Amino acid sequence: MNEQEYYVPSGTYWPIIGSIGVATLFVGFANQMHGASWGGSIMALGFAILVFMMFGWFSQVVKESTSGMYNSQVDRSFRWGMSWFIFSEVMFFAAFFAALFYARQLSVPWLGGADNNMFTPELWDGFRATWQQIAFNTPGATLQSGTAVSVPTQLVDAWGLPALNTALLLLSGVTLTFAHHALRAGHRNKIISWLVATIVLGVLFLGFQITEYGHAYHDGLKLTSGIYGSTFYMLTGFHGFHVTVGVLMLTVILYRVQKGHFSADNHFGFEGVAWYWHFVDVVWLGLFIFVYWL
Amino acid sequence: MSRLTSLLGGLVVIVSANVFAEYGFNMTQGVTSISRDIYGLHMTVFWICVAISIIVFGVMIYSLVVHRKSQGVVAANFHESTKAELLWTVVPIIILVSMAIPASTVLIDLEDTSKAEMTIKITGHQWKWQYDYPKEGISFISNLKQDSKDLIYSGNNRHKNYLLEVDNNLVLPVDTSIRLLITSNDVIHNWWVPDFGVKQDANPGFINDAWVQIDEIGTYRGQCAELCGKDHGFMPIVVDVVSKADYAKWVLKQQTAKAATLAKSSKTWREEELISLGQKVYNTNCSSCHGITGKGISGVFPALKGSPIATGDIKKHISIVLHGKAGTAMASYKNILGDADIAAVITFERTAFGNQMGDLIQPVQIKAAR
Amino acid sequence: MTTATATAHTDDHHGPEKGLMRWIKTTNHKDIGSLYLWFAFTMVLIGGAMAMVIRMELFQPGMQLIDPQFFNQMTTMHGLIMVFGAIMPAFVGLGNWLIPMMIGAPDMALPRMNNWSFWILPFAGGILLSTFFMEGGAPAFGWTFYAPLSTTFAPDSTDFFIFAVHLLGFSSIMGAINIIATVLNMRAPEMKLMDMPLFVWTWLITSFLLIGAMPVLAGAVTMMLTDRNFGTTFFDATGGGDPVLFQHIFWFFGHPEVYIMILPAFGVISHIVPTFARKPLFGYSSMVYAAASIAFLSYIVWAHHMFSTGMPVAGELYFMYATMLIAVPTGVKVFNWVSTMWRGSMTFEAPMLWAISFVFLFMIGGFSGLMVGIAPADIQYHDTYFVVAHFHYVLVTGALWSIIAATFYWLPKWTGKMYNETLAKVHFWWAVISVNVLFFPQHFLGLAGMPRRIPDYSLQFADFNMISSIGGFAFGASFILFTYIVIDCIRNGKPADARPWEGAKGLEWTLEPKAQYHSFNTPPTRALIEKESQNS
Ligand code: HEA
Ligand code: HEA
Ligand code: CUA
Ligand SMILES: [Cu+2]
């Protein structure tokens, strides 16, 4: 389309479909948690609607993009949109990191009597404030929610699978950058191989993550293992979820590369996904340092 | 004549003082050094704000009156002045700093609990306060008084201390530095007595502290100041501040009474005794959730009328009252009620609301189950 | 900004579709703006009706109408609906309507996403309101939903509330992203940042607050969800967590949130005051910097809501100092408005009346804010009606006031018609008097020791509560008149000029009397931009 014109898109049904989708998903989820037998099916329905919406919406955008309806202004809008979306994700993770730091630096020591909490230990017989072993210290305790604390027998070792996973993800960042260079140089085969490599690394990461979860769970580290278990699973879990989404996005991009959707200087779809992947990468570094290592 | 005037004058003073007390519209000065410091800060900041308002509003009102189009004024065109901007950045900063200094002093004093001569533990429950005197071995629960409860839904005239009276007042000695340890058994409550200048959250799982040293003998009232559920508005605090001698007497009396309660639990009770005591215990401790008529609130608090536990296995019934149920509002009453009270309330629950189980539970059974 | 844009490409240059589908499918910033505004208006009525229930129950001591549990539901839902349903969507609506017109753009940068931002809201609102019909009832733990009252001790319906908050947050984030992209990318090529009108500036800054704060709220409710259903212990000391952690996370969101609700209001007032003073805005650039400083400071003062939670003293001191600092940039704004009026040539049409009373009443609310910011004194103010008075002075006579002012100010541009000025003046005086009768006595109640969120109170609070309730009913009734004035304007208003206000500046006034469907098909020229700039 003409660089001199504003692009104003046509009306669309996708958003309302999307709203119906998420609302259905959430209502189903809430009912599922409260033991309604049909909750799961409603959830699945909502999810299906969402997937349908995403396919529909994105294919429309792809179609419009490849038929040259977008100019560089539209491209810039997409870029602003994607970068601030990623920033909002950063803030979402920040909330969980904050919970981790708070529990580790403040609430757990306080429970042990630090600072102006010298009387608090009266409430907790025999409690020792040591991070990670928090669950060891409260054997037999019942959480306020009524479930028993699950006591792990072993801690997660940072230098086993987590370290390997760090290497995998960092490597995948590199391979993706190679793919980007190849894209800018216009070597389609190279793009495809680097992209495939990135996806494989991502999938490997997920595989190891699941294995590691298996070990940890087997050793008794669960969501119910006190604040360490809570922060561990919530942070790594949300990260794993983001990796999964990232892998799916990369796969779509791979498909689009094969279709020849991207040109050397017009490939926002590719770049958006790359940014996302790097963001997931950086979050993992934070996780590795603060959840596993220190 | 002069006696009459002085009498009248005195009356006016009393009445107006009274009116002022009852329809106060400013912060209380209170009866502790902290509360007076806070009052001082409050007034200082208030007057500073008033002064700034007079200047700013004054300028504005002048402008609104004089600079009108209808007065034929032609608008000026200035729209910048670095000098003015600088002035009204710097001057407020100076004012703020002058407020921050005394505020910091008071804050630091307020948080320093190290000079305490005695300690009291305060525990919030939905919706009552528990007071423990660890050294004296005294512990009791303080509920909204039945008088007030009866008036809430009645259209009757309400009495002077409506909603601000409890069955067991906290008793503290005057002129003594007292450390308050504040915690909660369920949700967050907040122990607030305005006259003391103490308002401290009661957080479940943590113990906060605060301190008071009360200068004047008297009765002081406060309320829970953190939304804690349905009856948040109905968990008042009443503190009797007494002379040190009276306090010592009170402690002695409490300790004797405790022994008497213990004795009660070994005796065998008759049905009417159990039921009438049980009803009393139920109304003060349980009815706020399970309802006077045992109907509860659907989805939040279960009905006891026809409940599987209250009409089922006695052991389970005793167990839930003694130990509560984790993860719900049903708290453990083990350390709150004595054997006799628990036996009575269970007996009552199994007889009332049409439950008609007709079994008697004796305090010894509770003792055994503990 | 290198593209010199000439004509607009639209798929629908023949104007909008007809019927319901127009509103569901629309990607037009004006349509979406109207949807937001009508949604917000409906929510004001619903939230306001709940406030009326609160004021009726508090009319006199004793429980007459509702039970305490339902009272708590009313308080909670009133706060939630007013904040998330009324004020925020109203500002997004204003932003949608005005920003493209003010920066010389045809529409928003991401129009389809814009549609989605709006169309999530009715679903979120629907889920939130549906909790009233569930077992255990609607949320009853305050709009601040402190754990563990909202986790362990709340009914199942709470999970629906959590998802509703997720959706609301999602909508706000998308809205904010859109505004950032629009302002930075759709601005007329000739318009520099420091040419932008203040409403655009304040909204841009607000967007950064939204993007930074809303995801944190999403994190907070997610932790609540897992604490409630999956055995995590973020807010449970038994597992090493802390209920106060919830408050930190909540207020890290919550404090920026209150400035989200006031910065666009500052923007609106900065348009209206110069117009009716017929004089340029005083201190344009300091206004921009002040707004940015307020936004920055708002991220680092959150724990002033938590002075009685037992924080370490060092924390309390820090949060007190940081909080007091906010008075400085806010003061700059107030002084600039006053200086704008000074030696102007003022007239007092409805928008100006609302704007002037905003300055007065917001300042009262700001001062009580400063007072509650003094940590030791907050020991006495916290969780009393003094705080309730504080935040209604900044929210009702601040945020809501600016929205009403904006409605009167831009209504001619939206509808091409003029409202009835006489009725509008009657409405203003009615509202401004009754709102003070409603909220001013609440200062006294708070100082005398009445806690907030209580359904019943002891006798010494009776008189002021009755006065406050009477003010409340009168103020509530003023909305009937407001509704009439707006509808009357839409239906029977006299045609308005393109620039109905003599002193008005801004690109929006260069459009047709009823702004065309796509605002600027050709970007405005440098000369026009300079002529209409507030910064000259
Ligand atoms: C639009 C919303 C809004 C705005 C703008 C503000 C503005 C401010 N607020 Fe307010 N606040 C709320 C909404 C808002 N607040 C809400 C909703 C709550 C309650 C939440 C809940 O618990 O439910 C709350 C609660 C609240 C508390 C917690 C009280 C408590 O619970 O105990 C505090 C404490 O510090 C506070 C402080 C302030 C301050 C210092 C400002 C400042 O920004 C004010 C600055 C303005 C001025 C000071 C006036 C103008 C300045 C001058 C004329 C310059 C000269 C002045 C001086 C040198 C003094 N607010
Ligand atoms: C942005 C927001 C906003 C706005 C605009 C308002 C508007 C009003 N609010 Fe408030 N309010 C809050 C935000 C807001 N509020 C918050 C955040 C809280 C804290 C909640 C909490 O503690 O968790 C609160 C709490 C709160 C309380 C304290 C409750 C308590 O602590 O127990 C009270 C009590 O008087 C109150 C009253 C009012 C009144 C009378 C209005 C009036 O201005 C409303 C006027 C509008 C109308 C009345 C609508 C008109 C409707 C019609 C004409 C239709 C017909 C309706 C009828 C049946 C009458 N509000
Ligand atoms: Cu206890 Cu409020
Ligand atoms: Cu705040």
- Give the domain tally of chain A: 2
Spatially, the strands of the biggest sheet of chain C line up as 2-3
Q: How is the quaternary structure best described? A: heterotrimer
CATH architecture of the largest domain in chain A: Up-down Bundle
The CATH superfamily of the largest domain in chain A bears the name Cytochrome c oxidase, subunit III, four-helix bundle
Would you mind describing this structure in some detail?
The complex is a heterotrimer of chains A (294), B (370) and C (536). Chain A is an all-alpha fold and 294 residues long. Chain A has eight helices and one strand; from the N terminus they run βαααααααα. In chain A, α5 runs antiparallel to α6, α5 runs antiparallel to α8 and α6 runs antiparallel to α7. Chain B is of the alpha+beta class and 370 residues long. Helix content of chain B is 44%, strand content 16%. Chain B is built from nine helices and ten strands. About 4% of the residues of chain B have low confidence. By secondary structure, chain C is mainly alpha-helical. Chain C is built from 17 helices and three strands. The chains are: A mainly alpha (294), B alpha+beta (370), C mainly alpha (536). The complex binds heme-A (2 copies), dinuclear copper ion (CUA) and copper (II) ion (CU). One heme-A sits at the interface of chains C and B.
Question: What are the defining features of this structure?
Answer:
heterotrimer; A: mainly alpha; Four Helix Bundle (Hemerythrin (Met), subunit A); 2 domains; 71% helix; B: 370 residues; alpha+beta; Helix Hairpins; Immunoglobulin-like; Cytochrome Bc1 Complex, Chain D, domain 2; five-stranded mixed β-sheet; 9 helices; binds heme-A
In short:
The complex is a heterotrimer of chains A (294), B (370) and C (536). Chain B is an alpha+beta fold.
Topology summary:
The complex is a heterotrimer of chains A (294), B (370) and C (536).
Chain A (H helix, E strand, L loop, with lengths): L5 E3 L5 H20 L5 H28 L5 H40 L22 H4 L23 H25 L2 H31 L7 H34 L8 H26 L1
Chain B lengths: L1 H21 L10 H34 L15 H30 L6 E8 L2 E6 L4 E5 L3 H7 L17 E4 L3 E8 L4 E5 L4 E5 L5 E6 L4 E7 L11 E7 L1 H21 L6 H20 L23 H10 L15 H13 L11 H7 L1
Parallel strand pairs in B: 1-5, 4-10
Antiparallel strand pairs in B: 1-2, 2-3, 5-8, 6-7, 6-9, 9-10
Helix pairs in contact in B: 2-3, 6-8, 8-9
Chain C lengths: L7 E3 L9 H6 L3 H29 L10 H35 L8 H20 L27 H28 L12 H32 L13 H18 L2 H15 L6 H15 L14 H13 L1 H15 L8 H24 L1 H7 L3 H31 L1 E2 L2 H28 L13 H31 L1 E2 L30 H7 L4
Antiparallel strand pairs in C: 2-3
Helix pairs in contact in C: 2-3, 2-4, 2-16, 3-4, 3-5, 3-14, 4-5, 5-6, 6-7, 6-8, 6-9, 8-11, 8-12, 8-14, 9-11, 11-12, 12-14, 12-15, 14-15, 15-16
